[in-house]
Amino acid sequence: MKDLKEKVAYITGGSKGIGLGIAKKLAEQGVKVAVSGRTYKDVDAAAKEISADDNSVLAVESDVSKCENEKAAVAKIIEKFGRLDIVIANAGVGNFAPVDELTEEQWHQMIDTNLSGVFHTLKASVEELKKTKGYYITIASLAGTNFFEKGAGYNASKFGVVGFTQAAMLDLRPYDIKVTTIMPGSVSTHFNHHTPSEDDTWKIQPEDIGQMIVDLLHMHPRTLPSKIEVRPAQTKSKQ
């Protein structure tokens, strides 16, 4: 996509963290942005932070674990902007515990949001992306290839996201839809009850992921980085 002005993007989990960082970077490029989250108050506040222009930003309440929510969200985007060019499935949750202590509720919350959610978002938007020969991006994690203690449920969901996205990439190439999964390591967000602080300067910042997506969108159309691992350049111990 040589010129991003007037393109329309939809970012799930866009009220804070990585999603908000992506939305801000795209808005700086002139992209019209829709952000969603489970609580309208939060996404509305995020929308006002992204842009003061109501004609270029849209707040949508949607729980990605419910496909009908995502279909309704996409319908609202088309009603307001008339098209959809870029979809970023970013919404995610993490519950970390030994597998024998992980509850069924925690398991289903991660699978329904992290894994089923990316399917629901794509299912709701794919026909619009066919029209625009658009771009679908999932935000996975380095946990999608690297397992760790207390991560059984989270690993399962993110391994699934990576596999789903790569298979979807093959399915959608014939429609000239590009598909990429981005797998960040440590990012300075509120994820897992963390509070960002000055001690996080060594971590990836949300706007860094946003810039990466801008760079992806500007790449020559013949080239597709389909799976990207990204991690901090240094570890905390070296700061």
TrEMBL record:
It comes from Haoranjiania flava. InterPro entries: NAD(P)-bd_dom_sf (IPR036291), Sc_DH/Rdtase_CS (IPR020904), SDR (IPR050259), SDR_fam (IPR002347). PROSITE patterns: ADH_SHORT. One of its GO terms (biological process) is monocarboxylic acid metabolic process. Gene3D superfamilies: NAD(P)-binding Rossmann-like Domain. Belongs to the short-chain dehydrogenases/reductases (SDR) family. Pfam families: adh_short. This is SDR family oxidoreductase.
